[in-house]
Structure formats: structure tokens, C-alpha cells
Amino acid sequence: MFLKCSCRMMFLVKFRLIRLLEKMLMLFLLFPCQVVKVILTVLVFRRCPPNMVSEETDGNALLEQGTTGARARLKLNPTDWRTLEKVHAGLGHPPNEVLVRVLKYGRARPELVIAAKDWNCLACKVNKKPKRAPPSMPPITYQLNNVVGLDVIFIKDHAGNTRPCLNMVDWGTGFQIVVSMNDREGESIRDAYRRNWRSFLGVPRVVVIDQEAGFLKGVFPASLSADGAEVVVTSARSPWQAGKTERAGGTWKDVFNKVCQSHPLYSQRNFEEILDSTSVACN
């Protein structure tokens, strides 16, 4: 009787094992990648020592050690904070997610990675813009100097005065030149356009302008007509018609303001150099 029960139990165990192996084989055939990931995860956790602590746990523990300020919580010396500031500025003031990813790829210390997650940059905070709506259509591509947009933007010079600048953007390639002017009159606009765009790129086929007084009155529209360029004037109620020029000008001003935060303006020559350097960086 005992032998019969034992044989029956052995048969049931073998039957269940066979059924289990069949199910595992079916899962492996249907979902091979998922099964391999599960097996590797189990093996890794089995090999990890019990006292193993992740970077996130180390960072949370470091954050809970102190009570006042990020420097006290993370126990970073001033050299580490200067290093973070240099890396953030050298990368062009990227978001914190990008800064964390760069530090991880560079095998930085866990303290620096955790500090980068909550990094606060004064220049980024001052120049933070609201999120833009997604575009409804893809941008149209043109050849170089086929369509050029002109716009007047305003920035602060070394003396703290508001200085008008001519923003010139090629819609096909995104090439941009920003030149400072003494005023917004048509003669100043014509001189800036003639010396910095037409002299080496030639006359564009189409020039897109808004209803700025200097664009519509004076010598500038007459010079465009004499060159044979087609002039398109956007509507005051439809600023999106010159959206590419407006967005390029806004991006240029953001970069200019960030550069001025790190390198204050102290002379007219320095102002012109930073003006040119910003255009080079945007291009």
C-alpha cells in the first residue's frame, strides 16, 4: 500500500514538472526577450551582497544627513560646486536631466550626480520661458538667401540703455546675423542690412518684414525695390507669419542674456564682441 502511494506521488510530481516545463517553453517561444530579462534579473539579485546600496539610496541618505542648505546636506566642498557650475556653463546651460546624464556617463561621484538633480542656475532661472505649443506643420526648407526675415529687437548695452538691433535670419538654413544700430530709422536699417548681409550674401529673393515704421517708411523700402527683392509684409494680427524670424530672435536674446550674466558688459567694444559671439554661438 505504501509503495503504491509513493509511486502515485512520484507520478504526480513528474507530471506537474513536465507541465511546468511545457509552460516555460511556451513562454520562452512566445516572449523570449522578457524571459531572458527575468532570468538575468534573478541571477543579478542573487549575486548581489546583502549590504549593497544603490546610488539613489546613497543620495537620499546624503540628502537626509544635514538640515540647512544643499551644500550641508550633500557635504560638498566649494571646489565641487565650482566644478558643477563650470560643467553646466560649458554645456550651454542644459536642463538638469542632461547634466545628470553627462555626469553619469563621465563616472562622476554619486554626490555630484545627486547635486546635479537639484542644480539651480541663476541665469537659467531668470531667462526661463514658458513652454511653446507644438507646431502644426513641419518647417518649409529653402535654399540659402531665398527667403530672409528681418526684425528689430531690443537689448541692454554696456551703459544700461536699450539698444535696437537688426535681426536677419535666413529661413532656409537658419543662418542668423544680429547687428546693433543707433536708432530704428530706415537709414540705419538700410546701412546695417547693406553692410552685414547684402555685401557678401547678395540680394535675397524674398524679404519678410513686419510693420515696423523703419521697414515701411524712408529709404529702406526704396533700396529693397531698387535691388529687385520681393517684399512680404506680415499682418499685425498674424505674428505667426514671421514666426521663424521671431523665434530666432527670441533664442538669440536668451543666449545673449545668459552670456551677460556670466560676462558683464563694461565697454562698447566688449558689447560688440559679445554681440558677435552670440551670433556665432546661435549659428
TrEMBL record:
Judging by the UniProt lineage, the source's domain of life is Eukaryota
Q: Which Gene3D superfamilies match?
A: Ribonuclease H-like superfamily/Ribonuclease H
- Biological process GO annotation list? DNA integration
Could you tell me which residue ranges the Integrase catalytic domain spans? 134-283
GO molecular function per UniProt: nucleic acid binding
- Its protein name is Integrase catalytic domain-containing protein
